């Protein structure tokens, strides 16, 4: 059974463990690179979790982290879903859906009316997950990726 755990800055070792696992398993899915984080010390990890207006969640099977997600408060009624990852050992079990819903619930409780995200084009499994959870393309230009040509695909979901 998988349970969701809201992370605080005191949980930085757990966040570090799951973030490094995500960047190692699926480097194609993130703009961040493992080289930027794998040697980060306690203060770097704690600072990431102390960002005002953020909501950090880890999915655990027993004591083993099997997924992660971040929510970030935006402006004008929008929050962002970031850094979603599910371990290969837990894929296909609804963990991604639960992590998305955890951030959507937090965003609604924070007053957001829209939950947005950016996804790397070509990440078909992530795009399918997001579409299944009500996200649609916005037509906005996402951030430029390191190749200097490709842009992230921006998706959003209205929050009831």
UniProtKB/TrEMBL annotation:
Fetch the CDD domains from UniProt.
NAT_SF
N-acetyltransferase domain location: 16-160
Spans through the membrane: none
Pfam families, per this entry? Acetyltransf_1
Recorded GO molecular functions are: acyltransferase activity, transferring groups other than amino-acyl groups
What species is this protein from? Streptomyces xiamenensis
Write down the InterPro entries for this protein, in alphabetical order: Acyl_CoA_acyltransferase, Bact_Acetyltransf, GNAT_dom
Q: Which keywords does the record carry?
A: Acyltransferase, Transferase
SUPFAM superfamilies given in the database record: Acyl-CoA N-acyltransferases (Nat)
Answer whether the UniProt record assigns the keyword Transferase to this protein.
Answer: yes
Instruction: Report whether Transmembrane shows up as a keyword of the record.
Output: no
UniProt-recorded name of the protein = Acetyltransferase
